[in-house]
Each structure stands twice: as structure tokens, then as C-alpha cells.
Amino acid sequence: MSEKKNNQVSRRTFLNYTLTGVGGFMGAAMVAPMVGMAVDPLLQADGEGDFVYVMDEDEITEEPQRKTFTIDQEDGWYESQAERVAWIFRDGNGDILALSPICTHLGCIVDWGVQDDHPDQFYCPCHDGRYDKDGVNIPGTPPTEPLHVYEQRVDDGRLYLGRANPR
Ligand code: FES
After folding, report:
1. How high is the pLDDT of residue 40?
2. Considering only CA atoms, which residue is closest to atom 1 of ligand 1?
3. So where are the chain's domains?
4. Shortest-distance atom of ligand 1 to CA 141
5. Which run of H or of E encompasses 129?
6. Each residue of 111-120: pLDDT tens digit?
7. Which of 103, 130, 147 has most ligand 1 atoms within 8 Å of CB, for mutation?
8. HEC states along 67-109?
9. To test ligand 1's pocket by mutation, which of 106, 110, 118, 144 has the most ligand atoms within 8 angstroms of CB?
10. Residues with Cβ within 8 Å of residue 141, at least 6 apart in sequence
11. Would you say 84 and 69 are in contact if contact means Cβ atoms under 8 Å apart?
């Protein structure tokens, strides 16, 4: 009699352990991918932080040149490519400057030297915004801050650009 009771308790205990183990395993199997999805983007390199070849250093002139290049970007699990534009030239000191064409007023695209009255400035057609050659906003026009500047590297005579940052 007491042996039978011991067997019943033993079966119940066994079932409890088994169900707890299986439940725990299934729970871990469900939660692990979710934790991975939440943490992985934080561990991934940011595609926009990479440097991309844009042009050879000896092609860079004092006159700003409009160059397009393609970057790989990641948004969580979604990978895509995006086109970027830079105005690239040598400034008065001979240093390379690569400017973003995105107007800092409301985000239209600036062009270089298109106004007869201001041939040495960047011009934004949306609200007549203007910037000098270094990308500094002209007082009295809508933009209140300079054009953003691309991070740059020159390696073996080749210019690489990274992300564009405010100054
Ligand atoms: S968006 Fe360029 S001046 Fe307004």
C-alpha cells in the first residue's frame, strides 16, 4: 500500500519535472530569437558609418564638383542601398571639403553657381537660401546653419566619404 502511494507521488513528481522541463525548453526556444532580434541591431555595424570610395584625389578641383555614390544601409533587419550626393572641392587652404547638398532650412537640394548674381555660392531654390563656397549660410537667407560636412578619408590617392555631420 505504501509502495503504491510512493509510486503515485513519484509519478506526479516525474510529470511535474517533465512538464516543467518541456515548458521551460519551449519557452526558451520562443524567447531566444526575440532577444536576438532585439539585441542584434545594436551589435551590428551601422552601414552609414562605412566609408565609400567617391573619386580620385587628383581629380578634385577648387571648383565644387557634384558626385554621387551609393551606400549600404541597414534598418533593423532590412538592408538596402541608398544614393548620396556630395559637393567636393579644395578650399582656400587646399584642404578637401565634401558638403552635403541638403539645405539645412527645410531639406531641399542646393546647387552650385546657378545664380548670376551669386555665382560663387550654393543656392537653394525652395526659399532662396544661399551658402558661401565653404557651405556657410549667408545671413539674411532662410538657412540658419551651414551645410553638413561628410567625414572623409584619403587612402592611396582615393577619396572615401562617410556620414555627413553638422558642424
Ligand atoms: S529649404 Fe532651402 S531655403 Fe528653404
Report:
1. 47
2. 106
3. 47-165
4. 3
5. strand 129-131
6. 999 999 999 9
7. 103
8. EEEEEEEEECCEEEEEEEEEEEEECCCCCEEEECCECCCCCCE
9. 106
10. 127, 128, 129, 130
11. yes
How large is the average pLDDT for residues 117-136?
98
**CA 2 → CA 6, 10, 12, 93, 124, distances in Å?**
6, 12, 15, 98, 93
DSSP conformation class of 155? E
Q: pLDDT tens digit string along 80-102? A: 999 999 999 999 999 999 999 99
Is ligand 1 within 6 A of the CB of residue 124?
A: yes
Q: What is the amino acid identity at position 46?
A: D
143 lines ligand 1 (CB under 6 A): yes
CB of residue 101 inside a 6 A radius of ligand 1: no
DSSP state of 59: G
Instruction: Give the CA distances from residue 142 to residues 31, 64, 87, 130, 136, in Å, rounded to whole numbers and listed in that order.
Output: 51, 22, 20, 8, 12
Burial class (CB in 10 A: 0-12, 13-18, 19+), 122: buried
- Asked if the 47-165 domain carries CATH number 2.102.10.10, the reply is yes
| Integer Cα distance of 20 and 9 in angstroms | 16
